[in-house]
Amino acid sequence: MAANPPTRALEVAANAAETSGLWHDSAAGSADLAEARQLAVYFAIDYLSWDETAPGRRDDALRHYLPDGTNPGLGWSGHGRQRASFAIPGRALPRGDTVAVDVGVLVTRYERRGPGPAEPNPPTPRADVARRPSSVPPATARGWHALEADWIRLVVPVRVGRGGRLEVDLRPVGANPPTTLGGD
Hints:
Elements: H1 17-20, H2 33-47, E1 50-51, H3 55-63, E2 81-95, E3 98-112, E4 144-160, E5 166-168
Antiparallel strand pairs: 1-2, 2-3, 3-4, 4-5
């Protein structure tokens, strides 16, 4: 039985900065496959989550993956609400200086029903532990009704950026030539 093609594809690589702990450690020039997969999962969840009542939350989360100067508003109109709740990394393939990671993400869309809050809830103070912001909104919110969940597939290219950190690579696909599998 032939595999279905991805429902959606996104070519990106990963920048976790200081808070993620994902650093390039190899002299080979490409990202470690396990670290690339982990960062691709984080990015896919934040990329596919948004809430129009707190748009800055998504921008703040995506900045951790992207090189300086990259627009964190990519892929969202600024309207609506969507929540990615779970992601599974699949195959990770070297493509030039990137590692393309297939990620399946469980996403719940929301529909506006009735008035929403006058303003977003303030963030809840948390203990001082190692953490970074996420764009995932709460599962419930006044004025929103959850619809059915869907699986969405993304291909997330991860590369080693400045300072040895991994980052999401938004270069055009043609700038990342694929390598052959199973041979040199």
